Amino acid sequence: MIVCHCNRITSADIDDAVTCMKKNCSNPDLCPKKVYEELGACPKCCNCFPLAEKLIKESTLRFISQSEIANGSLAG
Ligand code: FES
Q: Which of 1, 8, 24, 38 reaches 20 to 30 Å from 48, CA-CA?
């Protein structure tokens, strides 16, 4: 799904960027502007920011959940 029409950024692009940023830094600044910079893009109209913020939150939660499973911290 295209999220940002100005930069042709997809939801998969955002998920990939969030995953990369989380892997490289434990507490990255995950605002749309920083995520777009990670993708080599620059915000223009910013109409996509509300949806981008929602997707960034979802990707962050998914990354944390997958990390916990990989680390065995959810094992009972
Ligand atoms: S739609 Fe994303 S910057 Fe314009």
A: 24
Looking from the CA of residue 5, the nearest atom of ligand 1 is 1
Q: How far is CA 5 from CA 1, 20, 28, 51, in A?
A: 10, 22, 25, 12
Q: What are the tens digits of pLDDT across the range 9-49?
A: 999 999 999 999 999 987 889 999 999 999 999 999 999 99
Please give the DSSP secondary-structure letter assigned to residue 31. Answer: S
6 lines ligand 1 (CB under 6 A): yes
Domain ranges of the chain: 2-61
